[in-house]
Amino acid sequence: MIDAIAFLDQFWLTLLVLVPIVMVARAVVAGSRYSAILIIVVFGLTLGALLVATGAGTAGLPDLYLMNMLSRATIVALTASFFVGGQELRRLFGGVTVPDDRSVVLNNKEVVLGTGRTQFVFIVRSFFVLLGVDATVRVLLGTGGGQQEILPLLAYLGLVFAVILVDPGAQIANKRRYLGKGTVELVLLILVLAGAAFIADGVREIAAFPPIFFSMLIAVALGWVFPRWTHGPAVRALMFGGIPVVLAANFIIGGSLLVESLALDGMAPMLLYGFFGQLMWMFGGISVLMLVGRTAAVRNLAPGMAGALSHAGLTGACTAGDMGEIARRRAPIMISVPFFGHVFLFGILAFSLDAGQLLVWPTAAMAVIGLALTALALRQVRRSAGEDRAEVKGLMLFSFGWQLIALFGGLLMLAHLSLAHSVMATSAALSHFGVFAALQGGLFGAEAAALIAFVFAMPFLVHPFVYFMFGRGMARDGEMPRRPAYALAGLGAVGVVVALVGLA
Predict the structure, then answer these.
(1) 488/279 Cα distance (integer angstroms)
(2) Same domain, residue pair 244 and 348
(3) What CA–CA distance (Å, rounded) separates 341 from 347?
(4) Does a structural domain hold residue 7?
(5) Which tens digits make up the pLDDT trace of 371-388?
């Protein structure tokens, strides 16, 4: 149990660690076309390792309860993205026309290099939204563990700041209505997440679907029903700063596990697969889109691969606007569509858990279906001729198909490992936030839940290549360089073979 003084120390310490990491990362890449997520990876892992090396913390930072709590708030940020994805799907395919949102004009006066005043408020507010919503859901579900008594205070502080925090320099058409929308969004986030957890618990005996699956279904449905909802401060904050803040917390936790995790038997080859698998699946998908889909446009590649891998970092880069306005609009659609495949993924994993091993034939069947969908998608993209609606249709199919190939193909390649280790390695190789959130939630036990922060973080060291390539693409009028992408895909494939030999 955390006493009151220690709790307040942690509250401000966590805020003053995470927000500056995001701000410094944005300052480092300011003026370039590169994403701040890369710098967040490096800073987070380094800080986590330093905390342990200097004796300020122990592996996993168990004493920093709020940091651990925020690192597990991935589902909160993603639920907002799913809602926006549902809106975009309705607008695109439901014939709904929505005028440009002019209710808020951002104040772009820089607080620090690369971050305007309103953007700074979004980042800080995202911290409070994540904390307040997650704490409230834990209170409602009674899942606070030994910290259950302190959670109501945490929920109160988080929600109050999340509601009232606003940039006075931003031009807001109707502040009362704007703040009211934020309150409604907070309430809906809490209800969706609590409802998703309740449903997941209710069907656990049938299939072990994680709460994030049901939160996706509910949030996308709400977005489809309310396509004209203009976003209030809660959704705006989560879309801009939610994933960077969550990732910063995750990488700090992951960095603290660095030395201890590397000493575990079989960890090095698994990390090797995660690292080179990320190169193979990311640049392999990009190469396929270039060679067969005949598109090297970042507006297609960035959201397409964000969805195809459910890629945490690339999703954050897209929704933050690092990959351009078109990619920003498309990313919520692309990350929502492949989640419908989780019906099969978590169904197969649930039955595999019961069987004690991966069910090979259903897994192989899903990989084959992925191949067929990918072939159809590439044909659609190739024939789109730059038309927005046609491109989006093709990318939706590609996101779904390539994800089935990468997920189920990866599980097949790792079938000789324990189920928990194969799922961890697959999640890391794709930076797959859905499987990551499921592992965080304890789907494969406490050990996997503790290790996933580190296993998931290490392949993010691939991101120098990822963001360099996308940055080069943005600098070249939105066209990704082809030959380096092919070379990186080949390097990834070779590395995966080496990793599989090491895992054998």
Answers:
(1) 6
(2) no
(3) 10
(4) no
(5) 999 999 999 999 988 888
